[in-house]
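Data availability excerpt. The first of two example chains:
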Amino acid sequence: MNKEVYYKSSLDMIEDGVIAVDSDKNIQVYNRRAQEIFGISAKVGPEHPAGQIARGDIVVLADNKLGADDGNLEPEDLSVLGMPVYYVNKEDALIVVGKYKDNKAPCYYKIASGGKMEQPLMLNCKMEQISLRITIDDISNKITIYVNDKLYEMKYVNDIGHLVIIDGNTGAVKFYQNHGYTARDEDAKKIIKGKNFLAKGPNSPKPVIIGQHFSNIHPDNEVTYYLDAVLKGQAQEIRGKELSLNGIWVRSSTFPIYNENSGKIRGAAIILRDISEIKRLEKQVLNRDFKYPAFNRIIGSSLAIMEPIRMAQRVSKSNSTVLLLGESGTGKGLFARAIHDNSRRVDKPFITVNMAAIPGNLIESELFGYEEGAFTGARKGGKAGKFSLAHEGTIFLDEIGDMDYYLQAKILNVLQDNCFYPVGSSRSIKVDVRVIAATNKDLKKEVQEGRFREELYYRLNVVAIHLPTLSHRKEDIRELVEQMMPKIQKKVGREKLTISPEVYEDFYSYHWPGNIRELENVLERAVNIAEGNVINRSALPAYIRKNNSSNYLKGDIRTLKEYVQYAEKEAIIRALEATNYNKTAAIKYLGIGRTAFYKKVGEYNIMLSN
């Protein structure tokens, strides 16, 4: 066995994907596992020859999110299957069976609006005596298509489109979708538009990879970005980046290859580990145990956000008062609404009152209503207050920490006795109302300083749920961005924008003092000013582009107290991160006492677990 064959055989036995390129990004090594991960070498599974879709072919499309990881399919693209496209929107989950460009043939379809599937989406039908059974199961994360009891299965983690084409003349399967189809340039949209597809199966020809430019096999993505950074010497090495590529989750590491004599970079190596199964199991656990439909609007699957979601789900079925604690922009309103929608009061009113937005002289009448003639300008017949409107439902008292001290006593009475007196009335009104309160203030500190009633604090603090800052759940940023972008693009009037990898790098580095609200504002700004179809770093505000958390201290002039508070919070967070959230080690690292540590943690609402 010569050295080259021995070398290739050794690489093909490795369980990780290995890709190596020269300094010009021409591929020199692409082992068996890398080809399997990206579906480039489709030598296993059912066989079909190369070909092209034709009029009269039976097309089966199962897509758990139309427009995502399917070539950006548009509803109108489905008209060639006989689909009435006005029934379907982008982001819907969809199963459709139709004959290609045959207006006289029937079309069968099932839709889950917005991709929300409380149970598997299923369609059984017959087309030209061919039995078809299709299921999208968002719990097991699988799309299955049975053609006369022969299975074509696609597993997924986030979004995927699964396509099977049956020859209209012979009834044989002509094409089926395969993982890594973007590398094969065979996404659903291109195939439906008539692009030629490659052969699959044990006897299919081997694609030419060695010598190809990296971008010919992999279009621009985060792997390309990290590869460029290493080749240009901008990064010594990049390890353990978790990426979703072509529907496959991988853990990617990129290393430079040096010339032994000159010491200059002569190329780079990429090591890829397929972690799709880990991610799939992780998502299944989260979906099965923690996610209820009412909480689907809360985006994220990090441990930091799942803990408050779990607690909110558990308490939602009771009538207990809930106190939501967290900085501005962390989603307290979303949590309050989800708790109500998952409660037995879901069909009753949900009334929101922002305590900080109502002038002090009006808030009592807003909350409790008033009798006719109670004060100058009072409406004839009086007016019902928010508590009356919320009868048998839920009232959400946002920013309750800003409430007037006098009115706090009246709220306390409602919580204790379930009744109150409207302004100008001697007649009490009894109500059945569940109270959810929220604040970005440290209420314990407010009690100590005499600005908040101690009895009310304990009445509200029955179940306290702490919401994490965005800086404590940065792994959710990509999911949040993907959820926000369609709405923002529609608002601004721009479509088909993609976000470059360096933008995500800046997002992960920034500390987000405005939390999710700030992220949404930054995205809207970027969508407005981006040139072309790609949002690059140039579309971001300068303070984010600099990738430096100390920018806070270089921005607007702030008080000395604010500088000190920011520095203390950053020091505690960094100490926790440096010690892998070992509290004893972090305290020692900071050089402060245990009591002082926990006092600061409470004051700055810092999460004590990663």
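And the second chain:
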Amino acid sequence: MLHRGPDEEGFLVEDSRVPGLALGMRRLSIIDLPGGHQPVWNETHDAAVVFNGELYNYRELRERLVLAGHHFQTKSDTEILVHGWEEWGEDLLEELRGMFAFALLDLRKHFATVPLVFLARDPLGIKPLYYSQTEEGFAFASELRALLASGCVPRNLSSDALTSYLLFGSVSEPLTLVANVFSLPPGHRLLLHVPDRRRTPRARPWWDPRRSAAARDPRRPRNFTTAVAPVRALLEDAVRAHLIADVPVGLFLSSGLDSSAIAAFAARAQKGIQSFTLSFPDTPYDEAPLARRVAQATGTKHTEIPLQGPDMLARLDEAVSALDQPTMDGVNTYFVSWAARQVGLKVALSGLGGDELFAGYSTFTDTPKLVHLELLSRFLPAVFRRVSTPLICSLLGKQGSPDAMHKASDAWRMPSALPHPYFFTRLLFPPSELQRLTEPRFRKSTVAADGVTLEPTWLAWLERIADQSREFEPVAAISWLELRTYMASTLLRDTDSVSMARSLEVRVPLLDTPLVEFMCALPDEARVRPETPKALLRAALEGLLPPEILQQKKRTFTLPWENWMRTTLRPRLEASFANLAPALAVHLHSAGVAMVWDNFLHARTTWSRPWSLYVLNEWCRRHLA
């Protein structure tokens, strides 16, 4: 994991008090450059921590802990964790504001009769944490590939995870593409009794916005007008907090509203902050002119990094290799991270989270249609649903996209295939088409009363998130589904792996916990205005950005895959499909893969389907037996 932390490394190996224990870390030094070495111990040398992430409220927590009698040896945010653990135990998690994955070792006899290792992950899943229980013991890491490199984990493909990948273009929590390796889900914790190495620990949730202080506040806004001011204050505070660092911090700047919002608040908090845009000169994908206007309006020190098609294609293998798990989305973010390092940044702010919190995706308009469709279909016999499918799909207005037509068709004909209509809007391959590619696995699992999944499966995770969403109002429910699935399993996972591949830390102020909890507590009446996309965010930015920027339509950052895959990339993809990786070939039907490629060449499907299969195949070729 040298790429994740090129600055130094730290180990705790075979402590005489805990035979058989080893902790290690690589450091990307951001705060307390000379003093933040890990593992960090407490004063009595019986509690230690290894940590990946940033705590944005560490100064406030340090003051409280000093007043409580704790003595600090460093100025780092990492040391907060050992003293906070001593003071609050597992309730420490409720005090943290940041992105984190950490492992705490506790040797104190008065706390437990045996040594403990406590693992935890931040509420939104910004930082990853993977683990595996084998006959030899328990192992965890920040990357799946680190567990594979350890030799502790067999390089076997998970057929359950493959179904999830084909459905959604990434593997859903809590699975990984490797059998018996799991992701600790966002907002979950795990307690390991060190001597009991064969007992499988269970991940337990610790964060729930429905039970937050914001959700319990009787004074929370009830309408749109009263929500604007507190949202603006929370945005300003989130960006200010995310600028804390002992190295230069910059920001991604596209033409979109989310990154423009970050730029507006960051420039007010820190004069001359560096912003940058990845430009594609003389192409319709180039956002540089609009980003330049945002930079001028906010006063950032702006740089444009041009990337020509040949340069991008030359780095494509490098970008695919950066993926810790296969995904149809991550390569775009790799090039943005590459550009950040080109301008010398070690930390960059991103606008991720804006579409999820402020209803920017088409899923917010498509899901209600599918909800009504599902309710209607349940009252009709299957034969009627089958013959009426073309009419229903045309009424949904999706004639222009064959993939969207297939999604709508499945939502109408087989509404029970997935736990919520929302999931049909995020499909890559609909359930009805999976049999052409693999033997699909829709395996449920048992969930205990306290929310603990006894046998992790992707379907159980989706069912649980769907059940939780029904406690929210309709728009807030879609926001929750987005945050817990597409955001966690695709956007955040991809962003972490490809940015850290370039030794870059990406921070996401729009996923600041106080802001997320506030937004989750808002009634729909206070969140949206039907005629204005992302109305609450636009209103909160009034006076900070020019009207032409606030009023522009949503643009999606993408690369010209459609053209490349028909031209320059075509030989590469066809060679890959003709030679499936051995680990994948036993699960994936080659005839089905050939059909997907043929459908793309004849414009019967979009580029995302064959591209997702290419990335999957190349990842398996590199990493699985």
